[in-house]
Write a structure and sequence with these properties.
alpha/beta; six-stranded parallel beta sheet; 10 strands
């Protein structure tokens, strides 16, 4: 049984803590919102408004703090405040605790923000008196507890091999595919890319819906067919090896040609234009480097190119 603290007890924190409780671990929820603490206590959970590690054995401290956006940037104010509080608690701790960043944060945050804050406010040194890791969550709000208890993917990253092993032992029993990394920024980018890819796919089909509306077509059977015909849809490894523009005959022809069709029906397609623009940037870079290599649309599969 592990001793676990959940710092930030919103949807993600509560689901994470409840999942660990169900697995038999000892869990304490931490939140500065008194109404949230009262609510968790009403459920019979151990909930507190401050983190106290003074008499605690070695534990895992999960940071599940909010990181909303303000315009085109993450607002890490609450995240920094919570991390500062954890640092102060570490200063009075006798055990060697593992701080785990579970919030969605910009790549590099664990080492460029969390580590300095913890060291500053604890007076302790990473690797000697506490450990640090990234373990991004992949929970859906409507089924967060279920998703935690039955994950399809678990990602763990730390500079410390021993910390990766300890987190693996803690999380592997829940099942799902496990991926580990030696750099926390890799795990942080996994989570950001995960969400951005989902958003991009939704926007792609919304753009195609606009085309279908303009042409008087029903998108649903078309989308369902493309989901089975396009290798980029059914093959998870298609096109994921970055660094080379697409080439061949079909992809350049149809991306460029379809922009002309959109113009003819007075429809703006910003996502398709961005696709072409990104490809042109890669092509221009390759030309400047003298490489000139392009990925044929019919062979753009990472497994074949590795």
């Amino acid at each position: 049984m592990a001793r676990i603290f959940i710092v930030g007890s919103g949807v993600v924190g509560t689901a994470t803590g409840k999942g660990f409780l169900h697995a038999g671990h000892e869990v304490t929820f931490i939140d500065i919102a008194h109404r949230r603490v009262d609510y968790l206590r009403s459920l019979g959970l151990d909930a507190r408004d401050t983190l106290d590690l003074e008499d605690e054995p070695d534990s895992f401290v999960f940071l599940t703090l909010p990181t909303p956006n303000v315009g085109h940037r993450y607002d890490l104010t609450a995240f920094e405040d919570g991390t500062t509080a954890v640092g102060k608690a570490l200063g009075a701790a006798s055990g060697v605790h593992v701080v785990v960043v579970r919030s969605t944060v910009p790549p590099g945050t664990t080492e460029s923000l969390v580590q300095p804050l913890l060291e500053k406010h604890s007076g302790k040194t990473l690797g000697e008196e506490f450990q640090l890791a990234s373990n991004p969550e992949f929970l859906r709000a409507a089924s967060a507890v279920e998703d935690f208890m039955h994950p399809w993917m678990t990602v763990i990253a730390s500079r410390s091999t021993r910390t990766v092993e300890r987190l693996t032992a803690l999380l592997a029993p829940f099942g799902g595919e496990l991926r580990t990394f030696g750099d926390p920024a890799e795990a942080e980018l996994v989570k950001c890319a995960h969400n951005i890819f989902n958003a991009t796919k939704i926007s792609f089909w919304n753009e195609m819906w606009l085309v279908s509306q303009a042409l008087g077509l029903d998108l649903d059977p078309i989308a369902q067919t493309v989901a089975r015909s396009a290798e980029g849809s059914y093959n998870p490894y298609y096109g994921i090896k970055g660094g080379a523009p697409y080439g061949g005959v079909c992809l350049p022809k149809d991306t460029q040609g379809f922009l002309g069709l959109a113009d003819s029906i007075s429809l703006d397609m910003p996502l398709l234009r961005a696709v072409v623009r990104v490809n042109d940037v890669l092509a221009d870079r390759d030309a400047a480097d003298g490489r000139g290599g392009r990925v044929d649309g019919e062979a753009a599969v990472a497994g074949r190119l590795a």
